[in-house]
Amino acid sequence: MIGRIAGRLEYRAIDHVLIDVKGVGYIVFVSDRVMATLPRVGEGVSLYTDLLVREDLLQLFGFTTLVEKEWHRLLMSVQGIGAKASLAILGTLGADGVSRSIAMGDWAAVATAKGVGPKTAKKVILDLKDKAHGVMAMAGTAAGAAPAAGGGASVSADAETDTDMHAVVDRYDGTAAGNGAAQSETLSALSNLGYGPSDAAGAVAQAAVENDGADTATLIRAALKLLAPKG
């Protein structure tokens, strides 16, 4: 399995690039969004990759982050979603957009991707709503994305055993984290408080939309309000 490629960008096509790695050229298919982030021809480039193996075909797909790569693998697990459709969804929505769409059940957003109809988009939401929390939690971590400038707080072991919501909120009060990191920490905190993955992910996604750029403590408070019993 080829999990990462680093070399010199030799050329760009519409949907793929050629990367020279010590004299060997690798064709890597990428989304429009990834293509837009790549350097100029002749410069160094590094991509996480996923290898598709079939009897008559070997294809590499490239991603700028591990989160994108894991979304690609999850999306391709849905019947009716092949590599081309997966790249179309990621190219249209990005990793954060896919996360929000699935967490909030927004199949219409998924259906805006080229070649993905409403029926398939609804299947994506249905099939992945209970499988995606692990990938959502990767956002903002060192493994999933570049760290935010200045760093951010992480969930420590004693926080994971803390079941009092005020203590959890106080732990993050004043923490300035990148929005991806704040969402990841909020999702983890809600899980520690006993909320199910789907409910927690939906609340975090909505709270992040309503509180753009908010720190972790603010997102936790907003998510808890959304999860509070109505009436």
Automatic annotation (TrEMBL):
UniProt xrefs under NCBIfam families: ruvA
Record region (Domain I): 1-64
Provenance organism: Octadecabacter arcticus 238
Domain DNA helicase Holliday junction RuvA type: 1-62
Gene name of the encoded protein: ruvA
Residue ranges occupied by any Holliday junction DNA helicase RuvA C-terminal domain in the UniProt entry: 182-228
Keywords: ATP-binding, Cytoplasm, DNA damage, DNA recombination, DNA repair, DNA-binding, Helicase, Hydrolase, Nucleotide-binding
Main location: cytoplasm
Domain notes: Has three domains with a flexible linker between the domains II and III and assumes an 'L' shape. Domain III is highly mobile and contacts RuvB.
Keyword presence, Metal-binding: no
Coiled-coil annotated residue ranges, if any: none
Biological process according to GO: DNA recombination; DNA repair
GO MF annotation terms: ATP binding; four-way junction DNA binding; four-way junction helicase activity; hydrolase activity
GO cellular component, one term: Holliday junction resolvase complex
Protein localization: Cytoplasm
Subunit structure: Homotetramer. Forms an RuvA(8)-RuvB(12)-Holliday junction (HJ) complex. HJ DNA is sandwiched between 2 RuvA tetramers; dsDNA enters through RuvA and exits via RuvB. An RuvB hexamer assembles on each DNA strand where it exits the tetramer. Each RuvB hexamer is contacted by two RuvA subunits (via domain III) on 2 adjacent RuvB subunits; this complex drives branch migration. In the full resolvosome a probable DNA-RuvA(4)-RuvB(12)-RuvC(2) complex forms which resolves the HJ.
UniProt name for this protein: Holliday junction branch migration complex subunit RuvA
Function description: The RuvA-RuvB-RuvC complex processes Holliday junction (HJ) DNA during genetic recombination and DNA repair, while the RuvA-RuvB complex plays an important role in the rescue of blocked DNA replication forks via replication fork reversal (RFR). RuvA specifically binds to HJ cruciform DNA, conferring on it an open structure. The RuvB hexamer acts as an ATP-dependent pump, pulling dsDNA into and through the RuvAB complex. HJ branch migration allows RuvC to scan DNA until it finds its consensus sequence, where it cleaves and resolves the cruciform DNA.
Family: Belongs to the RuvA family.
Keyword Signal: no
Entry superkingdom: Bacteria
